[in-house]
Amino acid sequence: MAKLAAYENISQDSGFPTTLHPNFNPHIRNYEPPDPIREEISPPKDRAFFADPSKLSLLSVATATDLTESIGTVLSGIQLSNLNEKQLDELALLVNERGVVFFRGQDLTTEKQVKLCQHYGILDRHPAQKVQQHVTIKGSIVDNRQLANYTPWPVSDFHADASLELNPPSYSLLRMEEHPAVGGDTAWLSQYGLYDALSDHLKKFVEGLHAVHTSRLQYDTIVDLWGTGPNRLPIGTHHPAVRTHPVTGQRALNVNPGFVTGKQPSP
After folding, report:
1. What per-residue string of b and e applies to 146-180 under the rule 16 or more CB within 10 Å gives b?
2. CA distance 24 to 15
3. Quick count: other Cβ atoms within 10 Å of Cβ 36?
4. Is the pLDDT score of 154 beyond 60?
5. Band of the pLDDT at 171, cuts 50, 70, 90?
6. How much is the mean pLDDT over the chain?
7. What value does the mean pLDDT take over residues 35-63?
8. pLDDT in tens, 86-138
9. Signal peptide location in the record (predicted)?
């Protein structure tokens, strides 16, 4: 059974299937995405570079509570919709340093959320998104847990948003309006911390590698399950397995089980 080029670099121990047959599946074979593959762009300068390192403007109107030593901070006492440009820049720096920042009781609407995100640069559109130019709205009362039995990647829960893109997004803003009493939790981890926890030997090893990120598995599964698919053809992208964050200067392990299927030596 033939393999596709997108699967060439899948490690045998990655948990991903090493041989799939999308060409034998009429849903996948006949689906034609409406949008072209994106070209690489030169993004604008990260807004965090414009921030006061002390974050005085932001922290003078908000209370910051760190959730753990290395990742996660809650900001209380503010409305995101009321922050000025200086405070938004300082928020960007805080997100870069802490990985994820939480806010409760916000008055954000979809329109306000889009406007806020536009401050930070070019808005991305997820390749699986079918409606609206910038905004994904998800709402469901259906129990989708059984879908996990049919996905070809069993460890897709942990991922970095759209890491497979030529220009992965710098920031993501998730707004939750309603949630169940229990369950449905989202967990975050620090890629800074993952890198720091490696031995010197492993650090040297991974620094010489590129990680292979692909949307092929996600693409095939969506088309196969729902008979329709993402807006764009699947892509495979090589990114350094270890990256130095342009804002913080910290080293991060740039791999995730959601999209990374293998490794290649750095060119």
Report:
1. eeeeeeebeebeebbbbbbbebbbbbeeeeeeeee
2. 22
3. 9
4. no
5. very high
6. 81
7. 93
8. 999 999 999 999 999 999 999 999 889 999 999 999 888 776 665 555 555 45
9. none
Q: Is residue 28 part of a domain?
A: yes
How far apart (Å, rounded) are the C-alpha atoms in residues 16 and 253?
Answer: 20
pLDDT 10s digits, 202-218: 999 999 999 988 887 77
Burial 75-112 (b: 16+ CB within 10 A, else e): beebebeebeeebbbbbbbbbbbbbbbebeeeebeeee
Handedness of CA 223, 227, 229, 234 (dihedral sign): positive
Tally of structural domains, the chain: 1
Nearest to 90 by CA among 40, 139, 48: 48
Q: How many beta carbons lie within 10 A of that of residue 208, not counting itself?
A: 12
30 compared with 152, residue with greater pLDDT: 30
User: Is the residue at 46 inside a domain?
Assistant: no
Q: Which domain holds residue 170?
A: 5-32+120-265
In a domain, 99, yes or no: no
Closest CA to 216 of 58, 88, 33, 62: 33
Question: Does residue 165 form part of some domain?
Answer: yes
